Amino acid sequence: MTIPANAAPAHRDSDAEALRASEERFRALVAPKPAQVPGGRETVLLVEDAAPVRSLARRSLEACGCTVVDAPDGPAALAIAARHRGGIDLLVTDVVMPGMSGRQLAEQLAPRRPRMKVLYTSGYTDDAMVRQGVLTAGVAFLQKPFVPETLARKVREVLDGEKGKGRGERFDSVH
Q1: Torsion-angle region of 138 (φ positive above 0: left; ψ -120 to 50: alpha; else: beta)
Q2: For residue 172, is pLDDT > 60?
Q3: Which of 15, 35, 38, 140 could form a disulfide with 158 if both were Cys (CB 3.0 to 4.6 A apart)?
Q4: Mean pLDDT of all residues in the chain?
Q5: In the CATH scheme, what is the homologous superfamily, with its name and number, of domain 43-169?
């Protein structure tokens, strides 16, 4: 569209506004829409030794309606779980952490929290986890790095499904 240089200012302004509105409508049509992840009111114990990853994961889960209690390592998570009065529906834990593996943490929490499901995360590829015998049937696993939406979807999948009931084997053997 060409606007003559001698056009009245009101004409140029209304054309510019119409063009801006058209561009905004076009962007809204072609922009990717974030998929809606059904929320819940579950409580998640998030254990991740990398503070930026823990912070991002916490915000993502809280945005979906979860109550999140977090810890930087296994011993801190055990202490938090012991003090936490309510239920813990899901443990989201890194597999490899200093001091205590995610597997060891899940094993220690299981007798006190038998209904708690577990989602393991790791920067190791899932193929490497399978080769080392880490991933077994019933174990829920999420590869890092992940985006918030992927984490939220996986958490919802684990909470609503059968995966995550199994504790897995040999998580403490991965270094």
Answers
A1: left
A2: no
A3: 140
A4: 78
A5: Response regulator (3.40.50.2300)
